[in-house]
Structures are given as structure tokens and as C-alpha cells.
Amino acid sequence: MQSLKTTEAKEIYQALKRSLQRKKGFGLYFVVCNPSQAQEITRKINQDFASSKKIESLVLTEEVPQLYNKIKEVQEKNPVDILLISGIEKSLDPYVKSGTEYGGDSTIDYGGRGGYYNLDLKSLPPLLSHLNLQRDRFKKSFPFALVFFLSPFAYRFFVRRSPDFFDWRSGVFEIPMDRELLEQASLRIINEGNYNQYLSWKPELRYQKIIEITELIDELWQTEARKVDLWLEIGLLYAANGNYEEAIASFDKALAIKPDDDAAWYLRGIALDNLGRNEE
Known about the structure:
Rossmann fold; five-stranded parallel β-sheet; about 280 residues; single chain; Serine Threonine Protein Phosphatase 5, Tetratricopeptide repeat; three-stranded antiparallel β-sheet
């Protein structure tokens, strides 16, 4: 179990397994994890239930406005007891913008373990609207378990914007990344980070990278030293997009951890200068 090496991850998987074993009929399960963990859990479920339940997978590779027909197609092709669904993020990412661009009242303050940034949901994604409206139809039509693999951000998105559908959940299983993989992912972000490259990206790509980095910051085993480096990357991404207030807030997060970090003070000063706040 290369992606589920920690005791915590193994225990959470066993809890999911027990819940699926007991469940008969319709059920909603949300597994909060990274893509490699989702692949490992998919493999384990197929292995552990090979002789007792019929398992199918639905992988979404592009934005979809509704999910009912997709699931119905799977159901009509093969009998199913457990349907594993991944790729929901494809239908959410296009609807995420910086909070300062839209201003508004529908921002998510994202960062469960002390993180901070605002992303505005410029409109309700059609998929989530569909799930809210079709909740009863799902229960009547699909007498089997639906297991959604979600990134931490997609999970928060779900809770906030699809509450009616989410209220029928049978269980939520949040799986932390193990220390080794977390360090590798964090170093990749830090080593690949380049402000000039960020400038060449489209805003949507910058926001997706901000989400990716903040999820690493929020991981259970993330170190304070790495958090500093990652907050600096988030600040640079915001600065590249012209969101200097968010950039300053990100640099302040780094300084809250390491008050004498020269890079954070330097970058904070540049962001203040861009806002014309030279006296600060």
C-alpha cells in the first residue's frame, strides 16, 4: 500500500471498507485524498471485494453538467454494488476565481489548519446544481454505494455549494498524505517555482496551483519550514496575477511562522510598493 503507508491512512481505509461491507442499497461516501491515494484505494477495494461485491469505476476526464446519466450508463452496462467516482474537480475548477476579482459574498476561506486564501465561486457549477436538484432521483434510481474521490478543495467546495446532496452522506473519510510523499510533493513545488513562469500562465492555472499548494500546507504532517516556503510560492502566484493584497497576506503567513525570513520581508515590500504603500 505505497500511498497508504501510515497507520492513520490504513485505519481510515479499514473504516471505509467496513462501512461498504455493511451497506446495502443507496449510499454516499466521500473519500478526501490525493490522486495516488485514490488509485491505491480503488485497487484495494477491487481486491478486497472481488468475491462479494460488483465494483465499477467512473472516471470523469472533462467538465460534465450533470452526473445522473453518466451513472445510469454504467448501471445499464453492468450490475453494480459499489461505484467509484473520480474526476469531479474537472467540473469545479472552471468556476473558481480569486475573491478580489469578484468581490463577493460567496468566497471560501480555505485552509483548515491555519491556511488562508479566498477563492470566489463566480457561479454555482452546473454539476453541483444538478446534484442538489436530483438528490431524490439518485436515491430512487441507484440502489448501490457511490464513492466520490475528492481533493481537499473539491470536498470543501461540495460541502459549501452542494449541501442538499452532501446531507445524505453515509460517511466522510479524510486520508492524510504520508511524510515521504508529502516532502517529495512539496520540494517539487518549491524547486519548480518560478515567478517569470507564473507571469506567463493563465489566471485559471495560477488558481489551480494555489489550490494544489494550499492542500500541501494543510496536510497533517507538513513541517513548519516547508509551510514557509509554500506560502512564499502562493504569494508569488497571487502577485503574478496582480492580487497584491492576497500576496501580502500569504507573505504574512510565512512571517507568522518565521518572523526573520528575509525572502518573505523582501517580497512583501515589493507587493506593498506595487500597491503604492511605500510608507509601509
